[in-house]
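Re-run requested by the PI after the first attempt was lost when the workstation crashed. Everything re-entered from the original request form. Ligand of interest: uridine-5'-diphosphate.
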Amino acid sequence: MRKRVRILGTYIDLISKEEAFIKLRGFLNQSSMKIVYTPNPEIVMLAQEDKDLMQAIEGADLVLPDGIGLLIASKIKGLGLKERITGIDTMDKLLAYCGEEGKSIFLFGGKPGIAQIACENIEGKYQGIKIAGFHHGYFQEEDEKDIVTLINSRRPDILFVCLGAPKQEKWIYQHREELDCSLAMGVGGSVDIYGGKAKRAPKIFQRLGLEWFYRLLKEPWRIKRMTVLPHFLIRVIIKG
Ligand code: UDP
């Protein structure tokens, strides 16, 4: 039975990393498409004002808590979230699994050229993985049909969508009936990490749950986006 909790209205799965990965592997062996998101506090805040985003998250098959803020909120409210499960860690594990099983991926998103480099790097790192295709994320609305057709013609096992939040969550949800893959997952800036355009925080930052702080040091202009965290926690305390 699926256990979920709600943080400011947004459903998050109550699941450990290990259980999540077992579930993900199961998804890859089913015929209907499954949707996975990894929201952080910023997205939970956005979802309160954005019905489409809230609906997309509610309709997903697995929602993992990416962001230390969600764990703090869970502690405050006694919700029992087990641990932080980041999008990039989950993607890493899935890529390794695809390598072992010879499964295929399609990478959609990022600036023109980046998804291709990311796919080349992924192919080098995860021996045995199949690259079904890639497409950049700067398209017009009228191109969307062609992009869906391209993805479906390649029949990937996993579609990674890197359009940033909340665009990727809404895009996947909006096209869920048309997409032909086993798993569609929103993974934000991961394409830039695999494409060598951005670096992951050093392990010590990762272990302490301070990746956001490392990112702030590297991209100080994000400060405005990040002030959302104290607002989020205050809202959790007040409204729950
Ligand atoms: N991006 C895209 N199309 C867009 C907007 C963004 O492909 O219309 C890409 C952008 O190039 C970046 C990724 O989405 O590679 C994620 O952006 P960001 O780091 O802001 O998202 P986050 O990881 O914070 O969700």
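Saved to the shared folder this time. The beta strands are 4-7, 10-13, 34-37, 62-63, 104-109, 130-135, 158-162, 183-186.
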